[in-house]
Amino acid sequence: MGPIGHGRGGGVEVTLCSLVGGLVERGHELMVLAPEGSESCGCPLHPVAGQLQPPWQQQPPHAPIVQPPDGVLAAMWRQAWMVQHHHQVILNLGYDWLPLWLGPCFATPVLHLISMGSLSLAMDQAISYLATHQPTHLAFHSRSQMESFGIHHGRVVGNGFDMDTYRFVHQPEPILGWVGRIAPEKGLEDAAAAATLLHMPLMVWGRVENHDYKAQVMADHPTCDFRWQGFVPPLQLRQTLGRCTALLMTPHWQEAFGNVVVEAMACGVPVVSYRRGGPQEIIHHGLTGFLVDHGQIGALAAMVGEAQHLDRHRIRRHCQECFGMAAFAQRLEDWILSAVAPDLPKTD
Ligand code: UDP
């Protein structure tokens, strides 16, 4: 994790805010432990100082587990250890080895919402240990994400979004959108290639995680009309995304969920993406967007043409029905109760 509100945590930051908002609305009390410099996310926040962890998505699959000196992750979990008796449950949102390993040693139950698919042997082993010994303590965002760890029967909770914060736009501009960290696994080059074929400008929102990669994408697509927006705060993005005719989501990895797919749909924007991972489970082909085979740039471009004819009101409605914050909170609560109080009858 990075400090909340700056984009380093990617989709986890949005998940955290929805989780807090939804659970507080259901009457729960939460306290968030997060790196120093974090912005408020709707409940008391305890900032923790220390060096950030190298993200797993930037490591080779056999990379060892690294704990930097004065690491924030270790400091956060020391703090969690000290306050555990004031809490009924601890939720881990960080995709990191230490909390997975420490969880079973706590007296208070530690539950893990896993935010990415299989990337590293060390993480796979830690998740697989929990899947065997504490299976109710794990949850995933999508089925394909869960299955990437070789787990076939587990808890899938999806994700939730505060629909009121997304501005619906009926009449879009002739521009394409792409949102994500600028990093190789996100596959910006495919969107650039499709935008070039279509002679349409490509609005790009997101934090530059890898500057060499950005330079390479620009060099390889010299005629693409990139409109670089940088990382904009979530609430601002939600007000502008609706301008796009369509959103391209072109990951080169197994996307665990794909928040931006839902967020575009919440603004009425159809999404064209690859038929795999989270986007495949979220996009209703022909209703909210289109799915094409991985790497098929011509098909991506062709489907943008089709997507322009989709009913944007219907996209927004479908999104509200499936991905609201309240329904997400309910699913989280069901998961938490099943793990910590399996004998309690379910709430509404
Ligand atoms: N995001 C944002 N501002 C930006 C670009 C992205 O707030 O300028 C948010 C975006 O709305 C999304 C998240 O960052 O919720 C990225 O999540 P996603 O699941 O798509 O990808 P991840 O980075 O977690 O792999």
Largest sheet: 6 strands, parallel
Structural class: alpha/beta
Order of helices and strands: HEEHEHEHEHEEHEHEHEHEHEHHH
| The named CATH superfamily of the largest domain | Glycogen Phosphorylase B
Q: Percentage of helical residues? A: 25-40%
Bound molecules: uridine-5'-diphosphate
Q: Please name the CATH topology of the largest domain.
A: Rossmann fold
**Strand arrangement, major sheet:** 9-8-7-10-11-12
Spatial extent as radius of gyration: 20 Å
Uncertain stretches of 5 or more adjacent residues: none
Strand content: 5-15%
CATH architecture designation of the largest domain: 3-Layer(aba) Sandwich
Assign the CATH class of the largest domain. Alpha Beta
Count of alpha and pi helical runs:
13
First-residue to last-residue Cα separation? 33 Å
Secondary structure: number of strands: 12
Estimate the global geometry from the Cα principal axes. Answer: globular
What is the total number of structural domains? 2
Mean pLDDT: 96
What features would you describe in this structure?
The protein has about 350 residues and is an alpha/beta fold. The protein has two domains: about 10-160 and about 325-340, Glycogen Phosphorylase B (Rossmann fold, 3-Layer(aba) Sandwich); about 165-320, Rossmann fold (3-Layer(aba) Sandwich). It contains 13 helices and twelve strands. Helix 5 links the parallel strand 5 (about 140) and strand 6 (about 155). Helix 1 crosses helix 13. It is globular and about 60 Å long. The mean pLDDT is about 95. Bound molecules: uridine-5'-diphosphate. Uridine-5'-diphosphate (UDP) binds near residues 7, 11 and 231. Uridine-5'-diphosphate (UDP) binds near residues 10 and 232.
